[in-house]
């Protein structure tokens, strides 16, 4: 009898929401350190900055059955000046990047949350390798530059594509895209 090698379990359902619990905020910080400090080497041992003191963290939480399991995606948003909002530090755990729904769902809740709070312009500095995702989600590049030694685009969201969502603490369920059979 042949046994297939063990394949790690990946959750099939996620809640995308504002980080309201201590463990969610800690999970978002851990994931950001893993991605931006460990994998990408953009920062030393921590990527935390002054924006974290005013930002709203948003997370994608994986579920095992009906129980919340882990933070597998995150982004933060903040209002820089009245009506002008920024998204930053978008990160998805490596094993969940091919799921397909998480980055887009985090972006959608980020922009829609700001839209509900009076946003008239939503911006982000996006690494060049993520340009196509943002363009598909109705963002446009307004400038190109290097940041932390990597090519970036300053991008602006088309707010007409993002209806206001005022229930960010509850968020919504994101299901992975299924491969065509």
How does this model look, in words?
With 181 residues, the protein is an alpha+beta fold. The chain has a single domain, classed as 3-Layer(aba) Sandwich (Aminopeptidase), CATH 3.40.630.30. 22% of the residues lie in helices and 36% in strands. It is built from three helices and eight strands. It has helices at residues 22-39, 102-116, 131-136, and strands spanning 14-18, 56-64, 67-81, 84-92, 121-127, 139-147, 150-157, 172-174. Strands 6-7-5-4-3-2-1-8 form an eight-stranded mixed β-sheet, with helices on both faces. The longest helix is centred in the N-terminal third of the chain and has 18 residues, at 22-39. It is globular, with a radius of gyration of 17 Å. The model has no long low-confidence stretch (mean pLDDT 88).
Strand content: 35-45%
Low-confidence stretches: none
CATH topology: Aminopeptidase
Task: Tell me the CATH architecture.
Answer: 3-Layer(aba) Sandwich
Number of helical runs?
3
The sequence of SSEs as H and E is EHEEEHEHEEE
Helical content band: 10-25%
CA-atom Rg in angstroms: 17 Å
The CATH class designation is: Alpha Beta
**Content-based structural category:** alpha+beta
Quickly count the domains.
1
Overall geometric form: globular
The H-level CATH homologous superfamily, spelled out, is Gcn5-related N-acetyltransferase (GNAT)
Record the strand order, biggest sheet. Answer: 6-7-5-4-3-2-1-8
Count the beta strands. Answer: 8
**Measured distance between first and last alpha carbons:** 27 Å
């Amino acid at each position: 009898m042949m046994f297939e090698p063990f394949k790690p379990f990946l959750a099939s359902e996620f809640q995308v929401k504002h980080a309201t619990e201590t463990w969610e905020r800690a999970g978002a910080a851990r994931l950001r350190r893993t991605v931006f400090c460990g994998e990408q080497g953009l920062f030393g041992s921590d990527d935390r900055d002054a924006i974290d003191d005013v930002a709203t963290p948003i997370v994608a939480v994986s579920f095992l059955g009906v129980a919340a399991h882990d933070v597998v995606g995150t982004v933060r948003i903040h209002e820089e000046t009245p009506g002008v909002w920024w998204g930053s530090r978008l990160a998805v755990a490596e094993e969940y990047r091919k799921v397909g729904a998480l980055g887009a769902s985090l972006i959608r809740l980020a922009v829609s949350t700001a839209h509900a709070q009076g946003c008239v312009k939503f911006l982000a500095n996006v690494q060049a390798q993520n340009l196509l995702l943002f363009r598909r989600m109705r963002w446009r590049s307004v400038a190109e530059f290097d940041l932390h030694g990597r090519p970036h685009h300053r991008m602006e969201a088309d707010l007409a594509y993002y209806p206001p969502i005022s229930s960010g603490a509850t968020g919504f369920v994101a299901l992975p895209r299924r491969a065509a059979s």
